[in-house]
Design goal:
The chain is of the alpha+beta class. 34% of the residues lie in helices and 22% in strands.
Length: 809
């Protein structure tokens, strides 16, 4: 019995050793380091010895105890794993549940607070919105279509009438279906022509009431409609109570006529400056439904009894009148007349209007003043709106004055709103010339230190000059026909030309480097392409390589000019390019579009990294190069991702793994047929040992602790072979020997057979007299060996159990 227990103890010890050895192997494998394995014969013979002893003398009680012990151990581990898994899942579920509840609670709280704030301070919020946007002029304030009868409605009852107030904020809709939308060929100079008959009647009525000044009188809309199957309840006072759905539906229907009419009016008549920033109120009343005796809720048809429209102007622009501003506008018209030649053409008139506007005003760059309502009117070209002593305005002032003066000359012109290529809200004009074609005019962008014409009567494909980035007009000006995000009405713009206006174009003479409408740069002298010009020419920040006066679009590469080499792409210098460029078979490094002769390092070209020395690729270089804190291995001028081995740099030998220094590697390395020791990526000349174990200090200690109980006589762990970073062993080599070894590294690299390498390794082991048994020539990985021994061990246990119950296997 005592002997059996001892054998069981030794079996358990062996099993523990195998498990711990497996853990050690996994650790070593994760670190990707080499490690030597304990003698296969030791484990095999020890397992065989234990098996024979167990079979020959194991007590049945011990066998049963062993089976029970293993079963109980497995069950305990399973229960612990399940318990930990259950706890983790429970914690995750509770955590997710808590987060969701917290988010829902916070969201509900924020929504309630937001709704209360918006409804309590709606007028104030609307005024702030009007004052914050640069080009605010005309788009309705958003309202909520809600079916919640308990909500705080923005609809109020005054007497028998329900009223709802709308305001303008001029925030154009950026939805792609509206941005850059196709125009219509039938478009005229007035958006009035796009309205239906009902909206046209309302348009005319509002204009007549407000053509001289802002009218605050309530105007009857004379709109009527029957809304079928509406729910009405009887209140505590016996008065009819209408649902929010009903009220919102009625206002939506009235707004579908009023909003387009009002928007079109403000765009067609910019001289009505007192309407800028104004709010308007729509009201309605219905015929009171009848309740039968005892009824408190009915479904019935409701008929509008009346509808009204009322304007509420701002305290600033709202005080302006026609008698004050019209003389100013007429005076400017007279000044423009004086600029015109006899028998002035449409072109003469449009150019004179453009030039006069640019001479009258400057652009307001102070973003804090942009929301000023005066800036949204042509009156801002006469009035110092911010009191800084300057006459300034924003794009709306330029564009509306252009529209106003073209109207006086009978020239079709429309206001266009949209966004620029930088995402800013903007306003400009389309003007119809005598040929019936529409062209774009942006006086705002043309008003620089001098009047320019980059955006005067241009087409969608017309390029601006280098001063404006040489961009197509259609890319910098993106129109949106939906002038507000809070109303559903959409207007269509005229289809305008792709090319610039060509008739009587005497705005500028062509001299120097210019980019034509086809996108090609040409060099002009007195309006003619100068075919004698070959070389670089500059326009602003652009530098173009020309041959016979025309941009050489077929050439990309290096060009020498004025003592420097420049990189051009399709004939234009690319100042954004940094990389390699080939010239006459040689490779050069370019930085910011110019050859950089001071650069030494790596540069990528077509997916390959090359070594550059003083501005050109060094095809003869083989060695290390640092790039972005990482050291790479270069072979014949190119980074070699396949190389693994040693490389010398500045007198130090480094270990390379797949093309870069591996600072994590500690272990042996074969170079020129000889084994060397590498510590943390650097060859260590002081280390003296017969074998190298990567992470061996940890592995050997763990195996010794596990196998100490087993008393494995066949295996001796020589801890002197284990190198620890904390206790560096003293070198047994003399300086002369170290020097001799270094000289051997510099010898040409040779490749030997596997048998020769093994002989040298065995000779090294013999010379250092380390007690390490000869390993099997079959190169199993540590995990494969452990798997083999575990299978043998389990087989012995199964055979033992079978013998006990009388089964022959």
């Amino acid at each position: 019995m005592r002997k059996n227990k001892a054998l069981l103890k030794r079996a358990a010890s062996l099993f523990t050793a195998l498990v711990m050895l497996a853990g050690s192997a996994t650790y070593a494998q994760e670190e990707q380091t080499s490690q030597e394995v304990l003698s296969q014969e030791m484990l095999s013979e020890s397992s065989s010895e234990l098996s024979e002893e167990l079979v020959n003398g194991t007590d049945p009680e011990i066998l049963e105890l062993t089976s029970e012990t293993i079963t109980e151990s497995i069950e305990e581990q399973t229960q612990e794993a399940e318990s930990e898994s259950t706890q983790e899942q429970t914690q995750e579920v509770e955590s997710e549940s808590t987060q969701e509840q917290t988010q829902e609670t916070a969201s509900e709280s924020i929504e309630e607070q937001t709704q209360e704030t918006v409804n309590e301070n709606l007028p104030e919020l609307v005024q702030k919105s009007n004052s914050e946007d640069e080009t605010t002029e005309c788009s309705t304030d958003a309202f909520v279509d809600s079916t919640d009868e308990d909500m705080d409605s923005d609809i109020y009852e005054i007497g028998d009438e329900f009223v709802k107030t709308f305001s303008f904020d001029m925030i154009v809709d950026r939805n792609p279906i509206y941005l850059g939308m196709a125009g219509i060929s039938s478009a005229t100079g007035n958006y009035y022509d796009q309205l239906d008959a009902t909206s046209k009647r309302i348009y005319n009525a509002i204009y007549e009431a407000n053509k001289s000044s802002a009218s605050t009188a309530k105007m009857k809309l004379k709109l009527t409609k029957i809304f079928e199957n509406q729910k009405v309840t009887k209140g505590a006072n016996g008065k009819a109570v209408y649902s929010e759905e009903t009220k919102q539906a009625i206002f939506a229907w009235l707004g579908s006529y009023v909003t387009p009419a009002y928007l079109a009016l403000t765009y067609d008549h910019p001289e009505l400056v007192w309407l800028s920033g104004a709010k308007y109120t729509i009201g309605y009343s219905v015929y009171t439904p009848l309740f039968e005796s005892g009824e408190t809720s009915i479904i019935t048809d409701l008929e509008l009894a009346g509808s009204t429209f009322t304007i509420t102007p701002t305290k600033d622009t709202g005080v302006l009148t026609g008698s004050k501003v019209n003389p100013l506008f007429d005076g400017t018209k007279s000044q423009i007349d004086a600029m015109l030649p006899a028998n002035a053409t449409t072109y003469d008139k449009v150019k004179a209007v453009h030039d006069k506007i640019c001479s009258m005003v400057s652009y307001e760059n102070n973003t804090q003043n942009i929301g000023n309502q005066y800036y949204q009117t042509p009156y801002s070209l006469y009035y110092d709106a911010d009191g800084d002593g300057k006459i300034e305005t924003v794009c709306a002032g330029y564009a509306k004055m252009m529209k106003l003066q073209c109207n006086k000359y009978g020239i079709p012109c429309v206001l266009v709103t949209g966004v620029t290529d930088s995402g800013e809200y903007h306003m400009w004009n389309y003007v119809q010339m005598e040929n019936g074609v529409w062209y774009a005019v942006d006086a705002t962008w043309d008003d620089q230190s001098t009047t320019m014409y980059d955006f005067f009567l241009v087409g969608s494909e017309t390029y601006s000059s280098a001063a404006f980035g040489t961009k197509k007009f259609g890319n910098t000006h993106i129109p949106s026909g939906k002038w507000t995000t809070s109303a559903d009405c959409v207007f269509l713009y005229p289809v305008f030309s792709q090319t610039a206006y060509a008739g009587q174009n005497t705005v500028t003479s062509k001299n120097g480097l210019l980019k034509d409408s086809d996108g090609v740069w040409r060099y002009y002298t007195n309006n003619q392409v100068d075919t004698s010009y070959t070389g670089f020419a500059a326009s602003g920040s652009d530098q173009v390589y020309l041959i016979n006066g025309v941009q050489n679009t077929s050439y990309s590469g290096l060009i020498y000019n004025g003592g420097n080499w420049y990189y051009v792409q399709k004939g234009v210098r690319n100042t954004a390019y940094s990389g390699l460029s080939v010239y006459n078979g040689s490779w050069y490094y370019v930085k910011g579009g110019t050859a950089d002769w001071s650069y030494t390092g790596l540069a990528q070209y077509n997916g390959v990294w090359y070594y550059v020395r003083q501005g050109s690729v060094d095809w003869e270089y083989t060695g290390l190069c640092q790039y972005d804190t990482i050291w790479f291995y270069i072979k014949n001028g190119a980074l070699d991702w396949n190389y693994t081995g040693l490389c010398q740099h500045s007198g130090v030998w480094y270990y390379i793994t797949k093309g870069q220094v591996n600072w994590n590697y500690t272990g042996s390395c074969i170079y020129n047929g000889k084994s060397y020791y590498v510590e943390k990526g650097v060859l260590n000349w002081k280390y003296n040992s017969a074998a190298v174990y990567s992470s061996a200090s940890y592995t050997a200690d763990l195996m010794n602790a596990a196998l100490s109980q087993y008393q494995a006589e066949e295996v001796t762990i020589d801890e002197t072979n284990i190198y620890s970073a904390d206790t560096e062993p003293e070198s047994t080599q003399t300086e002369e020997q170290e020097s001799h070894e270094a000289e051997k590294l510099n010898e040409p690299e040779t490749f030997e057979t596997e048998a020769q390498t093994q002989e040298q390794t065995e000779e090294s082991v013999s010379q250092t007299e380390v007690a390490v048994q000869e390993e099997s020539t079959v190169q199993y990985s540590l995990l494969e060996r452990i798997e083999e021994y575990l299978i043998k061990f389990i087989t012995y246990i199964v055979k033992l159990a079978a013998a006990y119950i009388g089964i022959t296997l």
